[in-house]
Amino acid sequence: MVCLLAVVMLGASPDARFEKMGHEMICTCGCGQILLECNHVGCPVSPVMISELHAQIDGGGTNTSIFNWFAAKYGAIVLASPIRGGFDNVAWVAPMAVFLLATIGTGFLVRMWSSRSRQRRAAVSSAGVGIGSDAMRERIRRETEY
After folding, report:
1. Cα distance between residue 29 and residue 32, in whole Å
2. What are phi and psi of 62, to 5 degrees?
């Protein structure tokens, strides 16, 4: 029971929550780096955002509400990955859906091509058994002699 309680309480400190949330946001100074890892000398944006993150965590908001607050203030660009829920689910579902549809489409296309080639082979083999097949073989043999 003590081990289970220790495992559950490992990530419960406010500092761990701050670190986790700070690594899930992007600095909006234009560097494109993670908020807590922005290494621009004299960056005017990251200290302000970090103090706002501390204030939001100290205010007792949930992770989702804090992310929504930052997205409302700075735009969705501040989030390193989209929040699950609402229209942002498209960012999680669309790549898998496109991959699945492409795989099914490719299989359908290959099957269609193979059925057409079978039909062509059947048409050629049935046409090749006609009356002039011996004459055609003789002509081919003459034209390919060396």
Report:
1. 8
2. -75, 165
Kindly report the pTM of this predicted structure. 0.51
**pLDDT tens-place string over residues 8-59:** 455 556 688 889 988 899 888 888 888 888 888 888 888 899 999 999 999 8
Determine the Cα angle at 136 with ends 130 and 142, to 5°. 165
Structure tokens at 3: 């081990």
Contact 83, 68 (CB under 8 A): yes
Burial 90-103 (b: 16+ CB within 10 A, else e): eeeeeeeeeeeeee
- Tell me how long the chain is: 146
Instruction: Pull the structure tokens for residue 100.
Output: 């699945």
